[in-house]
Amino acid sequence: MRASFLSLVPPGSGGVRDYATVIGNALQSPPLEMTRMTDVSSLSGDCLLLHFSGYGFQKRGVPLWLVEHMRSLRTRFRAFGVVFHELFASSPPWGSAFWLGAWQKRIARELLDLSDFWLTNREESGRWLLARRDTMPHRVLPVISNVGEPASIDTDRAPHLVVFGSPGVRANVYQWAGGEVFDRARRKGLVIHDIGPPLQDASLAQRLVRENAVVHGKLAAQEVSQALSGASYGALSYPIDYASKSGVLAAYSAHGVCPILLWNDDRPHDGLVANVNYVAGFEALENIDARAVGRQARRWYEPHCVEAHVAALRTMSGEARR
Q1: For the whole model, what pTM was predicted?
Q2: Are 285 and 184 in contact (CB under 8 A)?
Q3: Residue 289 — pLDDT band, cuts 50, 70, 90?
Q4: How far is Cα of residue 93 from the mean position of the Cα atoms in its chain?
């Protein structure tokens, strides 16, 4: 008999909530929003699963209360697992993360010590966790697409360049190298398709209009999937060593879109290889077969699809309950 899960998530919307919802639905465990004031007195069961993001639970990334809540709550479950969406932040001395980093690390370590199994989305995060506790079930799996996984990527592709994600993520693409995305799109005859909540920068929003971009606004997951299935390229500005935790990159890859990653570093990370399963900057487009890169992106994605995450969590919880 399969174990039942109770999934706890930070309040609000975002990538962690989207991931937890997709995985939770597959586990037949819709996520429960957890705050300091949540009444957990009646909760018990087979497996408690915490989706941890320090900044999701506390604005400075230091939810000290969460550790105490989990320490008490886990005694009512046969197994306790943590999905570490993030561990801790770092910054120069003038940033708050510089001064709070030690506390953030302490919270991550204490949750690790309480857990029976864990999952994270970056090899670097996995190394940090393994260095502190390596005798328990664990997996390192890049994040899933929160907007679907089409059975086939062999669809007709229009000369569309999708820019998808939150307003901040999309603004980073449009501002990269002084708006290089617009120049490259004009040169290659690409139509920019902007998908997501309205941009907060009015000047960028106006430029999209001037550049004849198609502004879709926020779409339902099925509509995003449809747009990606017919697009050739998808652009994202994101650090390559954190790209495995990007739901946008996961969405592009799951749909066989050729991902264009804008960053000043193209060293291999988490199985991502420049100009093989993503394009390292617009300048590389001239010598790239978009279809081939899209297929390689999909091959990179498939070992950590939704089914793989669900299977890993079920397997680890079973091992922990033996």
Answers
A1: 0.94
A2: yes
A3: very high
A4: 28
